[in-house]
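Onboarding guide, step 5: your first structure request.
Type a short instruction followed by the sequence, for example:

Predict the 3D structure of this protein.
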Amino acid sequence: MRYLCLLLLTLAAGCATLPPPQQAEVSPCTVSEASFACQVERYHNVNVP
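The system replies with structure tokens like these:
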């Protein structure tokens, strides 16, 4: 039982050092369709289905 508790504590400590999950970036087109950044994004994504 002690080994199980020690194992669980070790795993929990290891998970605490992981970086937070990445959040999806907000598209510049959601802010303004006419912005330069939105036009560049549309240019780069022209061949993406």
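Each response can be followed by summary notes, for example: The chain is about 55% helix and 0% strand.
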